[in-house]
């Protein structure tokens, strides 16, 4: 298993360059780069070439660009913008050597039939798969454990990527999102472990299904998520790749970045090393 840092964990108390330097010093293997805020901020004073050079000269490497948001069930102008943004992300991912682009389904208050959600997701993901293939970049779909997300359980997300049936389309399994809308371990047990591209590790306070929000996340091992069930099942189905720690807790943003990143590593290793060996 390899250790990765998701930049949401220091969203308000660090920058991309600071995250990279600290994570590299602390021995992280990978980083997920936030394309909504931290990468644009970095590019105000640096270039993508500068970032590529950093990765070429340091241990830490880019795992994913995070994220292409709200890719499904868009109107025609919205869909064209998704394709444009994705094409730009592919070029950046290729230049940096990132393996994945994380794709997040639509969050909306509009009621959309599940059949229409699946149809849109399948069509768009196949289109994006074709665009990604020449770059060697894979699409990691992240279901969001919130009632207003169009794809909000592991089972629903897994059914979609099964219908898509492309080698370069798989899933992000975020433990928080798995727990937050009551995803079923039986669905995970029946899954092909090779279709889980990225594991996000975290924990949460014990609120009812449908009420949890990102700010309720806790350091791994300190909350109500059945991490034993998720991690032991992932091991059973053959997942061995990367664990990426992702938190959004406001009180953690009040820590200095090095303390946040160190604690994220320590708590992640404490939990995950009971199931997986780290290289």
UniProtKB/TrEMBL annotation:
<keyword id="KW-0413">Isomerase</keyword>
<dbReference type="InterPro" id="IPR013022">
    <property type="entry name" value="Xyl_isomerase-like_TIM-brl"/>
</dbReference>
<dbReference type="InterPro" id="IPR036237">
    <property type="entry name" value="Xyl_isomerase-like_sf"/>
</dbReference>
<dbReference type="GO" id="GO:0016853">
    <property type="term" value="F:isomerase activity"/>
</dbReference>
<protein>
    <submittedName>
        <fullName>2-keto-myo-inositol isomerase</fullName>
        <ecNumber>5.3.99.11</ecNumber>
    </submittedName>
</protein>
<dbReference type="Pfam" id="PF01261">
    <property type="entry name" value="AP_endonuc_2"/>
</dbReference>
<feature type="domain" description="Xylose isomerase-like TIM barrel">
    <location>
        <begin position="21"/>
        <end position="262"/>
    </location>
</feature>
<dbReference type="InterPro" id="IPR050312">
    <property type="entry name" value="IolE/XylAMocC-like"/>
</dbReference>
